[in-house]
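Exercise: predict the fold of this chain.
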Amino acid sequence: MRAWAQSITAALLVILVATLATVTATSGTGEARESGAVRMVQGTQSPGADADEPTRPNLVFVLTDDMRDDDLDHMPITRRLLADQGVEFTDAISPHPLCCPARAQLATGQYAQNNGVQHNRGVHGGFDALDPAQEASVWFRDAGYRTAFAGKFLNGYHPGDVRPAGWSRWDALTRGVYDYVDFSMTGDGDPRRYTDSYVTSVIEDHTNEAVRDFARSGEPFVVYAWHLAPHYRISPEGGRSLPPAEPQDEKLFLDQRPSAFDDPAFDEEDVSDQPVYLRRGAPVSRDEVAAENTARLQSLQSVDRAVGSLVETLDEEGVLDDTYIVFTSDNGYSLGEHRYVGKDVLTDEALQVPLLVRGPDVVRGATSPLPVTLVDLPVTFAALAGVTPQWQVDGTSLAPTLRGEDQPFRDTTLIQTGRTLGDGWSHRGVRTERYLYGTDGVDTFLYDRLLDPDEMVNLADDPAYADVLSALETRRRELVDCAGWTCNQQFGPVPEPATGSVRGPSS
């Protein structure tokens, strides 16, 4: 009996030691565990799953509204926790740089010619133009993920509108969407009006609550936190003003010099050769631009803190190392370049957006020059989560680049803007490493960004660029109707311009 008891005791000790080793290897805060080499993806495991079965990662998608890519320089928490811990894409663009079309691309993984949303309003725009069943959240829901949305959805989404498919929790802004301090949210079926809260803080709280609840459920999750800042404020009466800041941020950036002031295109003296949407511009006020820049940066400080609290919440719940965090904006914003303030134009200031990705197998502290777009994100999310898109998508997964692998990529990107009337289209064009080209059929622009990085000289009528323009127009015609893989082609080199340009940047 004594020998039998001793053998049982020894076996139990072996099991206990193995269990303690496993617990030790998988415990500790997320930041502490990140110090090792790139590791296999480990995410939240569904209850009842086999203990040896690989678990699935989570994903949190943080979106801002009208944020310039250089605004990120004034968000130190976001830079430290996401850029320094992941990959920063330095040439990311919103290929349809207007709120609703950009968000429709993020909801569907498709360009506007395929998802139907070409503008913020009118018969070709707004939430009414989107099929609410064609929302990428269904991919994750059907694969066993819990899903939550908090914040600003598509323009024109009202309290009585149908809840888009695929969301376990739905907490979208409805009335007072752009007011910051007087707004309503759907409340996942329990609508609520807020009159004494700051919208960023409310979205932050709802995001963290969803993360905590999902993490404790043991199921994998996808959470979208779509913020309003730094979009200008629109009161319920329709008045437009600068975005308000939280009280602790009202003294910040008062003397901050806008980066736009250092752009040769700022308040461009002669815009007579520019597209019609720039030719209308009057000289801009430096004081007004400086005031708007200050207000925008102040409003983004609450988003910066929200990113910090999100990472802290993920860490406290023990799922930080198992979660991809993606940060970007729906479009960029011009602050006086080419005499223009706003978006919905095909200039680099409106097209360029920040894009940061951190996660389980993402290279840390890296940058990538790939010419990526918002259309690439839904299929990237699907690849990272191991789920299959349920319809044809127009983007390319960025997962290989995030893991530090080389990946072939398109050399020409479709860019476009829309109208509320007619066929719904305005200027549509293409962007390559060297050129930016577009037309509405009459009004045409062509910039050689190698020689003219500030896009100040329109070469559309320059005979030396005739072959260049012809090649880009061929690509444009093919891409305006593209779908799926046809949106991601490698066309090859663009012809070199002939010598003897009559209107070069130095002429």
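Check your answer against the key: The chain has two domains: 58-409, 414-488.
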